[in-house]
UniProtKB/TrEMBL annotation:
Residues 43-63 are annotated as: Disordered. This is Transcriptional regulator. Residues 244-321 form the Transcriptional repressor PaaX-like C-terminal domain. PANTHER family: PHENYLACETIC ACID REGULATOR-RELATED TRANSCRIPTIONAL REPRESSOR (PTHR30319), TRANSCRIPTIONAL REPRESSOR PAAX (PTHR30319:SF1). It comes from Streptomyces spongiae.
Length: 331
């Protein structure tokens, strides 16, 4: 019997359509109001992984192991299930093998698969004596909403001057709902202007932000959404700097570029490289809402980041899928 899950539990200024891509990748630490909450999320994820013993066993894999296992799993299922239409469940031993190639040990890999089942992103199925996983409907919808932005050649661009203002009111008794809504808004590129008032560049669809939310009807009744244009005495550069930490955003880009900009697009170990690249790209898209470059300085690195991702993705995507199919055949 596959040991994978044997003992695991069973089962404002304006919103942008492209911005729904943040549903793919989690909570950013760049919005000031959410920084503490986001840090708690990251500490919780890291604690779970460390408790499971995650540590690159091979120094050569150390660079590939920077992504949390959940981000790496999302990257894997996004590329094989969405980009290539692979509809079959993936055996747990295949996940373990692939995650091992990016420095995640077996116990950490199995722990994250169980966690993603509990969260409703993956479904666990049995194939004879083997445990396997495939995307749930909710997980597929979540990834699909973000796919266009992930693969866009200009994922940080919006129409000039396009902003959204959103306000909401959630009772104190529903702190859980408030926290979930704030997380969704952060994913969608919003920053908190003040309590209950959020702004975002571009024009995302609020229906995409709330899609799949159990209390979507309840939340929609509390949300007011406006297209907005800044007017004096508001100075847009000062407003942007107040809502978003631009030094943090720049560092997110620089971290991505330091890792990938000079990487040679060689044909070796493409699957491990691709899912690691995608996990880092997801994290960068989550962090940067696509603020107007005119207010960010001439050396803002978003264009370099986009070009770096496209260069490597286009070389690695096809051979990575062929490598995945070979692993599945021999599982």
């Amino acid at each position: 019997m596959d040991r994978a899950e044997e003992a695991a539990p069973g089962g404002g200024h304006r919103l942008s359509a492209g911005r729904a891509g943040r549903a793919l990748i989690g909570v950013s630490g760049c919005i000031r109001v959410d920084r503490l909450g986001s840090a708690e999320v990251k500490r919780d994820e890291t604690a779970s992984v460390d408790a499971a013993g995650q540590e690159p066993a091979d120094p050569d894999k150390e660079d590939l192991a920077r992504g949390l296992p959940q981000e790496l799993v999302l990257a894997l299922v996004a590329t094989v299930a969405l980009d290539h239409g692979h509809g079959e469940a993936i055996a747990s031993r295949v996940f373990v093998r692939i995650l091992g190639d990016v420095g995640v040990n077996e116990s950490a890999a199995r722990a994250v698969l169980s966690r993603m089942v509990r969260r409703g992103v993956l479904l666990r199925v049995r194939q004879g004596r083997t445990v396997a996983f495939h995307l749930s409907d909710a997980g597929r919808a979540q990834l699909t909403r973000g796919r266009d932005r992930v693969l866009s050649p200009r994922p940080f661009d919006h129409a000039f001057g396009e902003w959204t203002l959103l306000s909401f009111s959630v009772p104190e008794s529903r702190r859980d709902l408030r926290h979930q809504l704030r997380a969704r808004l952060t994913w969608a590129g919003f920053g908190a202007l003040r309590d209950g008032v959020w702004i975002a560049p571009g024009a995302p669809e609020i229906e995409d932000v709330l899609a799949g939310f159990p209390e979507a009807d309840e939340l929609t009744a509390t949300v007011d959404l406006f297209t907005a244009t800044p007017r004096r005495p508001t100075e847009l550069p000062a407003l942007i700097a107040r809502v978003w930490d631009l030094n943090v955003l720049r560092q997110e880009h620089q971290t991505f570029l330091d890792r990938w900009e000079t990487t040679e697009s060689g044909r070796d170990g493409e699957l491990a490289r691709l899912i690691s690249l995608l996990a880092d790209w997801f994290r960068l898209l989550r962090a940067d809402p696509g603020l107007p470059p005119a207010h960010l300085g001439p050396d803002w690195p978003a264009t370099r980041s986009s070009m770096t991702f496209r260069r490597l993705y286009e070389v690695w995507e096809r051979p990575a899928y062929e490598e995945f199919l070979a692993l599945v055949r021999h599982a």
